[in-house]
Amino acid sequence: MNMDRGLISVDRWADGSQAYFLTHLHADHTNGLSSSWKKGPLFCSHITATIFPIKFPNFNLSLLRVLEIGRWHSISLVSPLTRSETIVNVMAIDAHHCPGAVMFLFRGDFGNMLYTGDFRWESNSERAVIGRSMLLGALKNDKLDIIYMDNTYCHPSYTFPSREVAAKEVVDIIAAHPEHDVVIAIDTLGKEELLLHIAKTLDIKIWVWPERLQIMHLLGLNDIFTTRTSLTRVRAVPRYSLSSSTLEELNILRPTIGIMPSGLPWMMEAYKGKKATWLPQPSQYSGSKLSTKDGIETNHSELNGISSGPKRYHQYIYSVPYSDHSCFSEIKEFVSLLQPVNLKGIVLKSPLYIDPLYHFGCLLEAVQPSERRQKFRRIDSESGDSVQTSTVAGKGNSTKNRIRRRAHPGCLGIRIRRVSLLRRSQSGAKIVETDV
């Protein structure tokens, strides 16, 4: 791909764009971003901008551009092809994922494009109702040409409850172990609402590590969290530090349980009186089997269905399906509501990965023959790793830009148009213009 033709990059930090957009501060979306990065203006939400200096100390903060959620912003760029001004309008919409996470709705000569980043679409939550209203209000009667969508759990096997229900399940586990210390595995950002629910319901403080306490204070959560272990029996620890061996060592000193709140299928060898090991995230694997560090292999057929409630995979470890990503039924509702012309997943590797078009192609807007004139250009790129990089183009008429049609088995042979895009190794979406 010729980067000189780039206009906008989303969650992608290579050279060649005039404006860069960050959906949220999780590491898989900031790969390539560093404190010394200075390739252009970086657009993000207010919360992301507030936390940004902790993640990237010494970053040139004059590059940050804050987007107000729910409001259209116009960005004036220069077309690398015509050297004339082109206007891109963008709206940030709450992605309900982690603090500061947003979706970006773009509008320009290329049409309407939605890039969700990571998102949770809980249809009955107040935040989702507001987000739904924002999206539909922004689109009005215009069609949505393409969604670049978080397809982390885009498989019917993935089903889990709302975060409100899952949070109550976590509290029930803690309350059922009044004499135990409790360690809860979390990331460096996210699960704040869960921790707040635990603290409020049980009237306790929660221990976090120093960097996490900084983030909590920046989020305005000053009185609930502490770095003093003597003040609480509940500790929130980095997710990578929770393992069966760690819990066994802690139980030598004091009765301790661990809780893994995640929608990820953290498959463990079911507890059979022997040591069990957490598996890494499924997005790290592309083969037909997953392997633990103890050599245990798990076939995909064994991954059928995340429990709708807690599971005890080890003598000391509980897994609760508290997810910050949408499950299959929520993705289906999201696509049904918006009915885009086309759909692409941004996660390329998962044990149960299937192209979202297989499941949801029949939900897309029907394409009339008169609408077959292309808006999207096939690009040259490399194979992707975890998050897909795609390019959306402006107007063009060349024959190489024609959109091909294909049948989707998951929709009983219904035929719709789709974009043929190759995978890249970095995350994001780029808006460029095609040849005239």
Q: What would your notes on this structure say?
A:
The protein folds into two domains: about 5-155 and about 325-430, Ribonuclease Z/Hydroxyacylglutathione hydrolase-like (Metallo-beta-lactamase, Chain A, 4-Layer Sandwich); about 165-320, Rossmann fold (3-Layer(aba) Sandwich), CATH 3.40.50. The protein is α/β, with parallel strands linked by helices. It has helices at about 45-55, 125-140, 165-175, 190-200, 210-220, 245-255, 330-340, 355-360; strands at about 5-10, 20, 40-45, 65, 70-80, 85-95, 100-110, 110-115, 145-150, 180-185, 205, 225, 235-240, 255-260, 290, 295-300, 310-315, 315-320, 340-345, 390-395, 405, 415, 430. The strands form six sheets. The chain has a six-stranded mixed β-sheet. The protein has a six-stranded mixed β-sheet with strand order 5-6-7-8-9-19, with helices on one face. It has a five-stranded mixed β-sheet with strand order 13-10-14-18-17, with helices on both faces. It contains eight helices and 23 strands. Strand 5 and strand 6 form a beta hairpin. Residues about 265-305 and about 365-435 have low confidence and may be disordered.
Keywords:
436 residues, alpha/beta, Metallo-beta-lactamase, Chain A, Rossmann fold, 2 domains, six-stranded mixed β-sheet, 8 helices, 19% helix, disordered C terminus
